[in-house]
Amino acid sequence: MILVKVTNPEYGTEYDKKDTKKYLELDKFYILNFVDMGRSHTDVFLKETGKQYFNSVIFSFYEEDGTPINIYNDERFNPFMTDVDKRPSEFYHRDQYQYFYELWEKEHKE
Question: What are the two backbone dihedrals, phi and then psi, of residue 12, each rounded to the nearest 5 degrees?
Fold first, then answer.
């Protein structure tokens, strides 16, 4: 499990700042669902917020034991660092978007 915490709420676009203020609390840990890392953007999806995504620049990232990590230099999150066929199944990036979306939908059906 990877944890994130809002540590840079002033970063990002005005839209990013608005969503951060609306959905998240400062210094609270959230559980990372997955990362959609592109060449010029990195969107972060959290277990607690479902389909709502956030700009990665507002967060600090941590291993479950509290060790800080850099997702941009970590093959688990950065799809540009490894061959797609060699990735472990537990990678947290865009290949899992559909899986997590369907899981979220199932958990939140009324």
Answer: 90, -175
Q: Is the pTM of this model over 0.85?
A: no
27 backbone φψ class: left, alpha, beta (φ>0; ψ -120 to 50): left
The per-residue pLDDT for range 21-60, each reduced to its tens digit, is 999 999 899 999 988 887 788 999 999 998 899 999 999 9
How many other CB atoms are found less than 10 A from the CB of residue 66?
A: 8
Task: Indicate the burial class of 78 (C-beta count within 10 angstroms; 0-12, 13-18, 19 or more).
Answer: middle
